[in-house]
Design goal:
By secondary structure, this protein is mainly α. The chain has helices at residues 3-24, 39-47, 67-77, 100-108, 127-137, 158-166, 187-198. It has a domain at 66-125.
Length: 207
């Protein structure tokens, strides 16, 4: 299934299932309490099979997300077809790499990109990279440029960060003044951002 079709399917599911999850969310992981700030989003994505915990029953919400883990989450969210994808051609990715098929699928769809022929699968995904991925998957129209103290207009991800901020998918830190583009995105943060992306009613006011 292609990227656009996958987004449509996910949005259709989201309309039906989000309210039920929000109303009846239970602690699916031993380290995510029911009143945890991202509990509903984590529960929702877990219920959709988009994210998984660890064998010991934990989710590790404050742990940084690696690029291969993010590729897996995005591929699941878009319901991408994983079979028959060409080798992505990254010098640091082979069939033994965790989530190889998901990396190949998201690379072919143009969602993930490498750098100097490398994907860096085990590297922490930064908030700027997260913004780029979500903006490519869920493009917005008539985007208002958003300025943060630590993201200049010449920053490589400026347009992406503006896009997801203006769409209400993500917001800044320190009262909204900074975005922390180089900071790693945690499993809880990505769960919240991804949920907002696929469930428009959960997006926040960007003003």
């Amino acid at each position: 299934m292609g990227k656009i079709s996958g987004v449509i399917v996910v949005l259709m599911i989201a309309v039906v299932s989000w309210s039920a999850v929000a109303a009846e969310a239970e602690a699916a992981f031993v380290d995510v309490a029911e009143d945890y700030w991202a509990a509903e989003e984590i529960e929702y994505l877990s219920g959709q099979g988009i994210i998984n915990g660890y064998p010991d029953g934990t989710f590790a919400p404050n742990q940084d997300v690696t690029r291969h883990q993010a590729a897996s989450m995005i591929a699941e969210a878009l319901d991408l077809e994983l079979d028959g994808r060409p080798d992505p051609g990254f010098i640091d990715v082979d069939e033994n790499t965790p989530h190889f098929r998901e990396i190949a699928a998201t690379a072919e769809e143009g969602v993930f990109q490498g750098s100097q022929d490398a994907f860096r699968p085990g590297e922490t995904m930064s908030r700027a990279q997260m913004a780029a991925v979500l903006a490519r998957v869920f493009p917005q129209e008539d985007v208002k440029r958003v300025f943060y103290s630590d993201v200049s207009s010449t920053h490589w991800a400026f347009e992406y960060i503006s896009e997801i901020t203006d769409a209400g998918i993500a917001k800044g830190k320190d009262g909204g003044s900074s975005f922390a583009p180089a900071q790693g995105v945690t499993r809880a943060e990505l769960s919240v951002f991804l949920t907002r992306a696929i469930v428009p009613d959960e997006r926040i006011d960007p003003s």
